[in-house]
Design goal:
This protein has eleven helices and 16 strands. The protein folds into two domains: 22-133 and 332-353, 2-Layer Sandwich (ornithine cyclodeaminase, domain 1); 139-331, Rossmann fold, CATH 3.40.50. It has 355 residues and is α/β, with parallel strands linked by helices. It has helices at residues 27-33, 37-50, 131-149, 153-162, 176-188, 201-211, 226-230, 271-276, 284-290, 306-310, 330-347, and strands spanning 22-25, 55-56, 61-63, 71-79, 90-98, 110-117, 124-129, 168-172, 192-197, 217-222, 235-238, 259-262, 278-281, 304-305, 322-325, 351-353. The radius of gyration is 22 Å and the shape is globular.
Length: 355
Amino acid sequence: MHPGGAAESAGNVPLARTMKPLRHLCAAEVAAAMPPLPERLDLAERTMRALGRNAELPAKIGVHPRQPGSLAHAMPALLRGEAADGSLDLIGAKWITGFPANPSLGLPAYHALVLLNDPVTGEPLAVMEAGTITAARTAAISGTAIRHFLSGGAAAEARVGAAGGALRVAILGAGAQARGHLPVVGHLLPGAQVRVVDVDHARATEFAEESTAVEGIGSMEAVASVSRAVDSADLVISMVSFGPNHQALDPAWLAPDTLFVAVDYDMQAPAALALEALFVVDERDQFLATRSGSGFAGYPDPDATLGEILRGEAPPRAGGRVLVTHLGVGLADVVFAAAVLARAEQLGLGRLLPG
C-alpha cells in the first residue's frame, strides 16, 4: 500500500481513484432547483454574450431514427471561465430526441437530458432532465431580446410612452412554451395587454383564463386569428407547433416597429420579414447550417447575433421592425444546468449514484 493510502497495481502504477458520485435530478427536482426569474434572465444574457467570444459550440450533430420527422441531436458546449486552470469553466452536453408520433401514444414528443462534467478532470458530475431547462432557458433568451429592445433605454421608454404605458403583446401558440414565456413578459413589460391565438381556440381560451393571475400581465384575450392577434402589437412571440406549412404570417399584418421573437424557426415569420427587418439570431453558424431545403427558405444571412447586439458590436438601428430568431443553443442548457446543480447541492436534491 502506498504511504498515502492509494492502492497500486502489480506494476507500481497507481490505479485511478474512484470517480465522484454522479448526481441525478428528475424533472421535479430540476424545477425545484431552478433559479428565480431575474437570475434566469441574467444567465441567458451571459450565454448570449459569451457566444462568439469565450465559448465553444459546434453545430448540432445527430442521427435520424426511422419514424418520419424524428430526430436525435447531441449539443456539446464549453464556456471558458476566468481561472487560468479551467476550474471555472463549464462543460457539458444536451442529448435530445424528438418523435412526433409520441403524443398519440400518450408520451411527450421530446425527451432530453443534460450531462455536466468536471472542467478540470472531465469526470461526470450530474445528469438531469432537460425539458424543464429547455423551457426556462428558451423563455429567458426571448426575455433577453425583449429586455434589450423593449424594456430598456431611451427608445424603449419612447415606445412605452407612445403606447400609453402598456405594451401590446401577441402570443402565437398556447402550449408549454407560451406558459413559460408569459411570466417573462409580465416581469419585463408590466401591465402588458396580451392577445393569444392557437389552432385550437378552446386551448387558447383556457390559456387566457388561466393566465390572468400571472404577475405583471394587465389583460389576456384569446382571439380567433393570427392577423387579429398581431394587429398593432409591439411584441409578437411565435411558438406554434412544427408542421408542413412554413412562413404563414403576412408581414402586412404587423405594426411598423414590431419586435418579432420567433421560437418556432420559420413556422410563422416569413422571409420577407427577415429581409426588411433587423434580422438577429442567437448563433450565426447554427442558423446557416439549419437554413436548407424548406427550412428558412429565402431567408438572408443574419444582420447580427444577440451577443453582438448586447456587446455593442452591431451597427445601431433607429426604428423599424426587428426579427429575433433563436434556435436553441446547447451552451444555454449547460449554463442553466450548472446553476440548477449548484442550487440542488445546497438544497440536498437528487440522488448520488456511485462513480
